[in-house]
Design goal:
The complex is a heterodimer of chains A (about 475) and B (about 170). Chain A has about 475 residues and is α/β, with parallel strands linked by helices. Helices cover about 35% and strands about 20% of the residues of chain A. In chain A, helix 3 (about 45-55) runs antiparallel to helix 4. Chain B has 9 helices and 3 strands. Chain B has helices spanning about 20, 25-35, 45-70, 75-100, 100-115, 115-130, 135-145, 150-160, 160-165, and strands spanning about 5-10, 15-20, 40. The chains are: A alpha/beta (about 475), B mainly alpha (about 170). Chains A and B meet through helix 1, helix 2, helix 3, helix 4 and helix 6 of A and helix 5, helix 6, helix 7, helix 8 and helix 9 of B. Chain A: This is F-box domain containing protein.
């Protein structure tokens, strides 16, 4: 085999000569290997290496493309992870041309960042090129987006997002959060998705993180089943309008999002199965009206600051409901709002609420088979609850039909043994006539520092003492069992 | 007394091999089961390559026999030592193949033809490791691949993907 280096720096003549030599003297080994084996070899290589292979020759470009056509590809283009590996391959400074280690330290950081960005751009471009005709199973694109961008990087991102919405992709995740979930002020402006008339044909799952999303930029999502928005600002759209563009939409999840005031209001039926709205706001208010008609809804999660108009209509399929309201003051307006929300969800088999909701919940006349009260979020609950709750349980003398006829199982999580909790349990045991099971899960012993054996002993004593007290409470239901763990 | 079979290479060299060793090849195992393997078994593999194939099979066979004879006592330490031995053997084996690519690719074809999945995947991994971290020009040289991009195309690629070509 010839050993002359045929690098591009040498004269053309030598290079051509060496090419000729290769042609005549040596065997192109890989040419003799069946394509199935070549594909197997390619399957052992990461995408970066596949890109290198596609640069070897026309034939290899073809092989790499055929390979990608055959295997459903998963592309993780992550600017937070990738440049490191690319830089390791080639530690040359992209600006001054010297080896990275010879730049001085102040330059170094900048140059390194610049070099990393440049390589990432080239890598993403090439990845899109190689995949231009094939179906991508899962594309995750995470960019270090910055609003005040001097180098035209935003335009580059725009072009990738354009490609992402026009290529055949089944699952698409666009993340501009730089891996953080933090206060908007810390992150600056979210990335603005480009305008267009996108109509992704096979897209089934769309996950957006930290961007501005204008559903009017999209014509139609023919196959979209699941949409998950995190830290996304939604403009000019309601949930119903979004759903009308997605005929097979099933799951909607909104977390730390900002949407228009009317977003959660609609007269039309929305045929989704799960809806989860967590810590969202409108552009003007920390909470929003909810008035939806969802005949197929099975799971509903609402975590928010307080309640305004809250109605879920036609939810006859509903199974699981989770409601957590952070409001510190409980008043009758909030009570009415929660009541109206829960009446709409009265078909639910399981309702999980935080302590704030429990007082309200007792007024809720449910026909459901099994109602699970889950006292969660214990650690987040401010002390301010105490003043009302102390006397609350003792003063409740009215009849509660849900308690008397429906409540079968109660789970109390993160039980700490406070007077409020004891009173609430006492109250429930006294009232619930068909109760079968009460499960009390104590705050884990792990939360007690291990080195203080005295404290631990105290804790064990307390646990024993509390259990005794709980077991001695009078029970309305003879069948009721109490399990403390 | 172990049953022996005679394998005939494409250049008419005869290799006497124990049945257990050669049965690792699904292709030959089938021939034996079908009763087609009477006398010499002719194979479309050169003697040089067939010697390598048998070297691999014997090493694998050796390993499984030893494991069967072990009792539990001291097995773990022994296994660890054995793993080291095998690794050492495999390293030597791959170094020889890297140095002689004719044999490497013949062996790749032979492992496919003889249906030796363990050898095939070992060799594929070896080729993948040889390619990993290399520049396109290095890979071309390693496997004698002709660069059929026109100078213009190459210039465009170099401009577009300069990062891949830098040493």
């Amino acid at each position: 085999m010839e050993s002359t280096s045929s690098s591009r720096n040498e004269g053309k003549n030598i290079e051509q000569q060496s090419r000729k030599q290769q042609k005549t003297n040596a065997i192109d080994y890989l040419n003799y290997i069946p394509e199935a084996i070549v594909f197997h070899i390619l399957s052992l290589l990461p995408l970066e290496e596949l890109i290198i292979m596609s640069l070897i020759s026309k034939e290899w470009k073809g092989i790499a493309m055929r390979y990608l056509l055959m295997v459903p590809s998963t592309l993780n283009l992550n600017e937070l992870e990738m440049p490191g590996t690319i830089l390791r391959r080639n530690p040359q400074c992209a600006i001054c041309g010297k080896s990275i280690s010879s730049c001085n330290s102040s330059q170094r950081q900048n140059h390194l960042m610049y070099a990393a960005r440049k390589k990432f751009i080239e890598f993403v471009d090439r990845s899109f090129q190689l995949h231009s005709n094939c179906i991508i199973k899962n594309l995750q694109l995470s960019c270090r987006y910055k609003a005040n961008d001097k180098y035209g990087y935003t335009r580059k991102i725009d072009s990738w997002v354009n490609l992402a919405f026009t290529n055949d992709i089944k699952m698409l995740s666009l993340d501009f959060s730089r891996g953080k979930l933090s206060e908007p002020s810390e992150l600056g402006q979210p990335y603005k998705l480009p305008h267009g008339c996108f109509a992704p044909k096979i897209l089934e799952t769309l996950i957006l993180n930290f961007c501005k999303f204008r559903p009017s930029s999209f014509q139609f999502f023919a196959s979209l089943q699941r949409i998950s928005l995190v830290q996304v600002e939604v403009f000019d759209c309601t949930l119903a309008e979004l759903a009308s563009k997605c005929p097979v939409l099933e799951d909607v999840s909104l977390e730390n999002c900002v949407f228009p005031d009317e977003f959660m209001m609609s007269g039309e039926n929305i045929m989704i199965k799960t809806l989860s709205v967590i810590n969202c706001e409108t552009h003007e208010w920390p909470m929003y009206d909810i008035d939806l008609s969802t005949p197929c809804l099975q799971m509903f999660t609402l975590i928010g600051n307080y309640l305004l108009t809250s109605r879920i209509r036609n939810a006859t399929e509903i199974r699981d409901v989770v409601i957590g309201i952070k409001e510190i003051h409980a008043n009758h307006i909030q009570g009415d709002a929660l009541g109206s929300l829960l009446i709409g969800l009265s078909h639910a088999r399981s309702v999980t609420v935080n302590p704030w909701c429990i007082q309200m919940l007792l007024n809720f006349a449910s026909t459901s088979y099994k109602l699970t009260l889950q006292q969660e979020f214990q650690e987040d609950v401010p002390e301010i609850f105490d003043f009302e709750e102390q006397i609350y349980w003792d003063t409740q003398n009215s009849t509660f039909s849900c308690l008397e006829n429906s409540l079968r199982k109660v789970t109390i999580d993160r039980f700490s043994g406070s007077i409020n909790e004891m009173k609430m349990i006492q109250f429930l045991l006294k009232k619930a006539r068909v109760l079968q099971e009460m499960e009390v899960i104590a705050i884990s012993t792990n939360s007690i520092p291990e080195d203080t054996s005295q404290q631990q002993e105290k804790y064990l004593w307390f646990q024993h003492h509390t259990s005794q007290t709980l077991w001695n409470y009078p029970r309305a239901s003879a069948k009721a069992t109490i399990a403390i763990c | 007394m172990a049953i022996m079979y005679a394998l005939k290479s494409s250049d008419n060299e005869i290799f006497e091999v124990e049945q257990k060793v050669i049965e690792q090849s699904e292709t030959i195992k089938k021939m034996i089961e079908d009763g087609a393997a009477t006398g010499e078994i002719p194979l479309q593999v050169s003697s040089k390559t067939l010697a390598k194939v048998l070297e691999w099979c014997k090493q694998r066979q050796h390993k499984t026999v030893e494991n069967e004879n072990d009792d539990n006592k001291g097995k773990r330490k022994k296994e660890r030592d054995e793993d080291d031995d095998i690794k050492e053997w495999e390293n030597k084996f791959s170094d020889e193949l890297k140095a002689d690519k004719d044999v490497l690719f013949d062996l790749l074809l032979a492992s496919n033809y003889l249906d030796l999945p363990a050898l095939l995947s070992f060799l594929c991994q070896l080729v993948a490791d040889m390619v990993a971290g290399k520049m396109p020009e290095e890979i071309r040289r390693m496997f004698n691949i002709e660069n059929d991009f026109t100078p213009e195309e190459e210039k465009a690629i170099t401009a577009e993907h300069g990062w891949a070509f830098q040493p």
